[in-house]
Design brief:
This protein has about 375 residues and is an alpha/beta fold. The chain folds into three domains: about 70 residues, Orthogonal Bundle (Arc Repressor Mutant, subunit A), CATH 1.10.10.10; about 120 residues, Nucleotidyltransferase, domain 5 (2-Layer Sandwich); about 160 residues, ATPase, nucleotide binding domain (Nucleotidyltransferase, domain 5, 2-Layer Sandwich). Helix content is about 40%, strand content about 20%. It contains 13 helices and 16 strands. The protein has a five-stranded mixed beta sheet. It has a five-stranded mixed beta sheet with strand order 14-13-12-15-16, covered by helices on one side. Helix 1 crosses helix 3 and helix 4 crosses helix 5. The longest helix is centred in the C-terminal third of the chain and has 25 residues. The protein starts with a helix and ends in a 10-residue tail after the last helix. Bound molecules: zinc ion. Zinc ion binds next to loops.
Length: about 375
């Protein structure tokens, strides 16, 4: 059983977390507003603010407009108190950034490697990146990677782009770097970034749908990322659209990615006699009806996938991201019409469809945000690892 001292510490840490999280999400506020919003007694609040100012996590200064009397001094969260390193491991490239607690990129690093690398090689490159980007107060490292990831044990279960299976990444890196290291699926990381700092910040329930080489999604339920029982939630790219459709790279037939990703665009470009996606896109923009139809078809199928998600999850919004969004003008209209016209009416009535805001940086910001989320976690919430 926990003694009274332990309970007191828990209460103190919990109250500290309440104050700092409120300042982080809702901006500077007066002590009176903090007391009202947290429900803390003035003495407890004063003590917690004093501790936080001493730590450097909170600053005091600035005045609030007051209609009468002396304007109250504001208490603010200090986003530069610390930072985390966010890393994205791609097929032949590693990108990394130092990201502050407001999700702002402060420094970048990039390096490349040959295809199908040995895990030890990539681990060394991550270490180099972290050493290059580290300054005095790094809280930890977040790594985003495509494929199936065991976030709890920090193991890359299956990564087709790297040819890896069951590669332990977090533990060896933690040993070398002496920092907490978290591993996450790349689309989940992107979704977390959009939730904290981007297009999803106003929604407690949304789906982030990405389109590029494949189709992916991250699901936010009640404000938190939904990872599923084994970390594989959101593999929407392999939702079956047509059981007799073409074979997918996963081995099944007629998955969504076969009809709504770069794989589809490449196939159709070749069928129409265009060299690649860039040429297909150019022709579509110049009014080639067949090329335009290819993008419309992609939007239509992506809409079918989204519609299934909408009917299943009833989200407030779909946040659309991924590298193929640079051609969004060619397919988003068809996507929206499919989602709006054919979803079960009530589920789609007030659904918002918005573009992701953070672009490719979202993967790095999201990876760093996993570390920040652990830092801001209330002591009553479960740990990630
Ligand atoms: Zn598939």
């Amino acid at each position: 059983m926990r003694g009274p001292k332990g309970d007191q510490r828990l209460i103190r840490d919990y109250n500290r977390g309440l104050v700092v999280n409120l300042l982080r999400t809702d901006g500077p506020m007066s002590r009176a507003d903090l007391a009202r919003r947290t429900g803390l007694a003035p003495s407890a609040l004063t003590q917690r603010i004093r501790d936080l100012i001493e730590e450097g996590l909170v600053t005091e200064g600035g005045k609030k407009e007051a209609s009468t009397g002396r304007p109250p001094t504001l208490v603010s969260f200090n986003p530069d108190y610390a930072a985390a390193v966010g890393v994205k491991i791609e097929g032949t490239r590693l990108r990394a950034a130092r990201v502050n607690l407001a999700g702002e990129v402060c420094a970048r690093y990039e390096t490349s490697f040959h295809p199908s690398p040995e895990p030890s090689e990539v681990i060394s490159l991550v270490e180099e990146a972290v050493e290059h980007l580290s300054d005095s107060h790094i809280l930890g490292v977040g790594i985003s990677i495509s494929g199936f990831v065991d976030t709890i044990n920090g193991i890359d279960i299956y990564s087709p782009i790297l040819g890896w299976e069951n590669v332990a990444l977090a533990d060896p890196l933690e040993d070398h770097l002496d920092l907490p290291v978290h591993l996450e699926n790349d689309v989940n990381a992107l979704t977390l970034a959009e939730r904290w700092h981007g297009a999803g910040s106003d929604y407690r329930n949304f789906v982030c749908l990405t389109v590029g080489e494949g189709v992916g999604s991250g699901v936010v339920v009640n404000g938190s990322l939904y990872r599923g029982a084994f970390g594989g939630a959101g593999e929407v790219g392999h939702m079956m659209i047509d059981p007799s459709g073409p074979i997918c790279r996963c081995g099944e037939r007629g998955c969504l990615e076969v009809f709504a990703s770069d794989q589809f665009l490449k196939r159709e470009a070749l069928r129409l006699g265009f060299a690649d996606i860039a040429k297909l896109e150019q022709e579509a923009r110049e009014g080639d009806v067949q090329a335009m139809d290819v993008f419309k078809q992609m939007g239509h199928y992506l809409g079918i996938g989204a519609k299934n998600l909408v009917n299943l999850l009833n989200p407030q919004a779909i946040v659309l991201g991924g590298e193929r969004m640079e051609a969004s003008d060619l397919f988003v209209a068809a996507f929206k019409s499919e989602v709006r016209e054919h979803s079960f009416a009530e589920a789609a009535k007030d659904l918002e469809i918005v573009p992701a805001l953070l672009g490719e940086d979202g993967f790095l910001i999201g990876a760093a945000t996993i570390v920040a989320a652990e830092f801001f976690r209330l002591p009553t919430e479960r740990t990630l690892r």
